[in-house]
Amino acid sequence: MDILETLKLERERVMTERERVTHPFDVQIAEIDAAIKAVVTARDPLADIATSPEKIAESLQEVQRKRDQMPIDDAIIEAVKNGVRSPAKILRFLSTQLGVDTTINSVRTRLSRLKKEGKIAHDNRGWIMPSEVSEGLPLDGNGGAAASPDANTGSAANASGVLNPQPVPSGTQD
Fold first, then answer.
1. What's 78's domain CATH number?
2. SS3 99
3. Shared-domain flag, residues 36 and 89
4. Residues spanned by the domain of 57
5. Counted domains in the chain
């Protein structure tokens, strides 16, 4: 990995951490802003900030939407629990099913971190829950099911239990 890739990954990691840490503050700030608008409107019904009950209601609905928005990591886990396997499909699920807005790069970064934390896994089917790992095989270093040698044939079973044939020595093929 060259220095540019390392720096890009570090930036993405820092941005992800920043988002995780600042989200609760953003919600609080939105709540305070809505309260300020309500007080200003109550004191001066002709104020430019919010001139009607509809605008106040819209502001409060926006605050509620932000408060109720599922954290992105939880949303990704929910998508994987629902059988969504690829980053692009997870992104689409987050947006259409859960109303969570994020980017494909954020999804990929979070998937990698969630795998390292043991909250999700990855095998030949894509992203899965750890409880879905094929036939109870342990995860390999890449988050997939580790292959185990078959005692009778010496071949290795893949994550779905199908045997991978060993190469046949030359001159012995039909």
1. 1.10.10.10
2. coil
3. no
4. 23-68
5. 2
In a domain, 80, yes or no: yes
The predicted-structure confidence for 96-110, as pLDDT tens digits, reads as follows: 888 788 899 999 999
Residues 62 and 76 in one domain: no
How many alpha carbons lie under 13 Å from residue 165 in its C-beta half-sphere?
3
Residue whose pair of structure tokens reads 């109550």 in the numeric block: 42
**Residue with the two structure tokens 């692009």:** 88
159 DSSP 8-state letter: T
How far are the Cα atoms of 85, 129, 144, 146 from residue 126, in angstroms, in the given order? 5, 10, 9, 15
H or E, element range at 3: helix 3-43
Specify the pLDDT at position 72: 87
Does 1 fall in a domain? no
Reported pTM: 0.43
Which segment of 4-18, 113-127, 142-156 scores lowest on mean pLDDT?
Answer: 142-156
- Exposed, middle or buried, 7 (CB in 10 Å: 0-12/13-18/19+)? exposed
Q: What is the CA radius of gyration of the chain?
A: 25
Q: Which of 119, 162, 165, 163 is nearest to 143 (CA)?
A: 119
Q: Measuring CA to CA, how many Å separate 133 from each of 1, 43, 103, 139, 143? A: 29, 61, 27, 8, 9
Is 46 contained in some domain? Answer: yes
The more confident residue out of 28 and 69 is 28
